[in-house]
């Protein structure tokens, strides 16, 4: 495979095998990029089925899985989504790197982000720790640097790069990438894989905790499920506040040189995770916060879903989670799993807070116990980052929140005490945007 199968044009390789999964929109240049990585014409254009090819690069055994592209300007056919999921199964023992392929020639706006998110969510695996943006058609930049190109793009591309740990690579001509571009790509893959390997003491603590907290049967099941293991590790490296992950040293910049993470005068990015029982009004609240119909309100939420927008100057990400049930109408294990991964769906550098939807109405001791149990999967400090959102605010009928809390008694007072008495009323029927602004101001101060 030319000279690069004989030598690594950077540091000595520590990898023996790399599995690469290519994802992207139709005609984004995925197949050509895969051919360039493998150094041979392994994939054809107009991919309709996921396929796998092997090769060698810089002395490393490389497996590349190409997948059909989704559509952003119309509904993606079900067969494409099914092939994407099948592509993941071809990545044995699992993808080490997921290349999200974006052509320089196309705009990556909210429509493209939503299309990508809809397909990526179907994979039901941890994406972002292994994700890297691959810009194709780099020759179309002209005299513009990639950093300047990124700086000129919409917030949606900035959010995506942030979510990927600001890992990206450019291919000037994806059908015949330069030696330098391929070397940089494999160096970044190597660094990412090294950083994703938890320290030995973290792994030992994780497995000890698993053995202590679950039965042997559940432990064997957990060992066979990579997503659960990864989620446990991610929870272990929290730095004391839920949703605030420690940055792992990567050996290369998270942001391009000179690219500000928080430009002067720009409000910080906020991540809001909506929590609550079924029918608590979470999805409707999420739609009102983002001022768009991001979440389905008449459909049972089974898995976390994500919406993005700019609200009163704040870049906001809202994560809607499945609601728990006091009557056996929701799988408690699945709800706990989805809640445990919810904060990881927010941009890595955003300020993540939890918004606890509590409908104005009945709130008894059994509601409090269920709330405490389900929030416990986020750690003991979750309450420090939580705001109570009283939904269906119209039901107050002129009463103050304080009077409502007094009438409901000790269980509701206990919740507010744990949250530092941070609360906001939301009435989705009024269209009063000041309610949302007050909520975001409260979240920013946390």
| Cα-atom radius of gyration | 23 Å
Rounded mean pLDDT score? 80
Could you give the order of the helices and strands? EHEEHEHEHHEHHHHEHEEHEHEHHEH
Sheet having the most strands: 6 strands, mixed
**Number of continuous helical runs:** 15
Uncertain stretches: 1-13, 214-264
Distance between the termini: 54 Å
> What gross morphology would you assign?
elongated
- Compute the number of strand runs: 12
Give me the secondary-structure category.
alpha/beta
Give the fraction of residues assigned to helices. 25-40%
**Strand percentage, roughly?**
15-25%
Strand order of the largest sheet: 2-3-1-4-5-6
Give an account of the 3D structure:
The strands form two sheets. The protein has a six-stranded mixed sheet, with helices on both faces. The protein is built from 15 helices and twelve strands. With 446 residues, it is an alpha/beta fold. Helices cover 36% and strands 17% of the residues.
List keywords for this structure.
alpha/beta; 446 residues
Summary, kept brief:
The protein is an alpha/beta fold. Helix content is 36%, strand content 17%.
Q: Strands, helices and their partners?
A:
Elements: E1 17-24, H1 30-38, E2 51-57, E3 60-66, H2 78-89, E4 97-103, H3 110-122, E5 131-136, H4 146-151, H5 155-163, E6 168-170, H6 179-196, H7 200-213, H8 216-223, H9 226-236, E7 270-275, H10 282-290, E8 305-311, E9 314-320, H11 332-342, E10 351-359, H12 365-375, E11 386-391, H13 401-408, H14 410-418, E12 423-425, H15 433-445
Parallel strand pairs: 1-3, 1-4, 4-5, 5-6, 7-9, 7-10, 10-11, 11-12
Antiparallel strand pairs: 2-3, 8-9
């Amino acid at each position: 495979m030319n000279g690069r199968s004989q030598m690594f044009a950077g540091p000595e390789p520590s990898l023996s095998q790399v599995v690469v999964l290519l994802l992207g929109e139709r005609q984004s240049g995925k197949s050509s990029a895969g051919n360039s990585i493998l150094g041979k014409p392994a994939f054809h254009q107009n991919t309709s089925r996921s396929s796998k090819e092997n090769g060698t690069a810089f002395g490393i055994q490389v497996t590349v899985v190409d997948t059909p592209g989704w559509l952003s300007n119309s509904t993606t056919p079900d067969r494409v989504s099914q092939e994407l999921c099948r592509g993941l199964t071809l990545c044995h023992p699992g993808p080490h790197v997921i290349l999200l392929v974006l052509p320089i020639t196309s705009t990556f706006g909210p429509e493209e982000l939503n299309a990508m998110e809809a397909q990526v969510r179907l994979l039901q695996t941890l994406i972002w720790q292994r994700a890297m943006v691959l810009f194709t058609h780099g020759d179309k930049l002209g005299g513009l640097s990639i950093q300047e190109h990124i700086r000129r793009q919409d917030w949606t591309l900035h959010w995506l790069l942030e979510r990927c740990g600001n890992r990206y690579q450019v291919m000037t001509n994806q059908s015949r990438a330069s030696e330098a571009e391929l070397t940089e790509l494999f160096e970044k893959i190597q660094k990412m894989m090294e950083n994703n390997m938890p320290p030995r003491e973290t792994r030992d603590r994780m497995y000890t905790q698993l053995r202590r907290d679950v039965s042997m049967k559940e432990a064997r099941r957990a060992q066979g499920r990579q997503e659960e293991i990864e989620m446990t590790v991610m929870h272990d490296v929290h730095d004391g506040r839920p949703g605030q992950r420690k940055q792992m040293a990567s050996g290369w910049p998270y942001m391009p040189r000179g690219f500000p993470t928080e430009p002067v005068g720009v409000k910080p990015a906020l991540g809001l995770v909506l929590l609550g029982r079924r029918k608590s009004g979470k999805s409707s609240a999420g739609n009102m916060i983002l001022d768009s119909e991001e979440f389905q309100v008449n459909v049972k939420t089974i898995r976390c879903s994500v919406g993005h927008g700019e609200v009163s100057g704040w870049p906001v990400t809202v994560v809607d989670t499945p609601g728990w049930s006091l009557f056996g109408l929701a799988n408690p294990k699945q709800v706990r799993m989805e809640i445990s991964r919810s904060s990881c769906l927010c941009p890595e550098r955003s300020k993540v807070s939890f918004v606890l939807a509590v409908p104005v109405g009945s709130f008894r001791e059994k509601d409090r116990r269920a709330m405490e149990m389900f929030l416990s999967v986020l750690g003991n400090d979750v309450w420090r980052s939580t705001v109570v959102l009283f939904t269906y605010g119209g039901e107050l009928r002129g009463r103050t929140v304080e009077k409502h809390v007094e009438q409901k008694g000790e269980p509701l007072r206990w919740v507010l005490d744990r949250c530092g008495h941070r609360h906001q009323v939301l009435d989705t029927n009024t269209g009063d945007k000041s309610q949302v602004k007050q909520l975001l101001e409260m979240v920013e101060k946390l």
